[in-house]
Amino acid sequence: MKIFHYTSAAPTHIDNDQAKGIDARVVIGRNDGADHFCMRIFEIAPGGYSPKHAHAWEHELFIHSGEGEAYDRGAWRPICPGTVLFIAPGEEHQIRNTGARKLVFACLIPSGVPEL
User: Fold this and answer.
1) pTM exceeds 0.85, yes or no
2) 3-state DSSP call for residue 6?
3) CATH number of the domain at 8-110, out of 3.30.420.40, 2.120.10.30, 3.20.20.70, 2.60.120.10?
4) How far is the C-alpha of 43 from the C-alpha of 12, rounded, in Å?
5) Which end of the chain is more exposed for a tag (fewer CB within 10 A), N or C?
6) Model confidence at 69, in pLDDT bands (50, 70, 90)?
7) From the centroid of its chain, how far is CA 70?
8) Quick one: how far is CA 113 from the chain centroid?
9) How far apart are CA 3 and CA 15, in angstroms?
10) What integer pLDDT is reported at residue 53 of this predicted model?
């Protein structure tokens, strides 16, 4: 068993022309012996956003803290603590922080795809 606070995992900072203000952490992945899933924690700074993209695998998100919006089939939908999202394979999606503090969420993806 592995028990730790997520902030002890080293963040990868993402800030470029497609994504802004993101600290991403792989907290459980292939290096931990996870054979089926990878868990990542994302922190998006106020005004930050993930890239608008789609890919061949599903993933699931749980919003832990902060406020924002999720791009879903051409519309922006509000997200807040407790919101869960299922993103099916091939769905275009994006997350953006519309609040005054960090937007923090857990993201699960299947093993075998890029962890970050």
Assistant:
1) yes
2) helix
3) 2.60.120.10
4) 10
5) N
6) very high
7) 11
8) 14
9) 29
10) 96
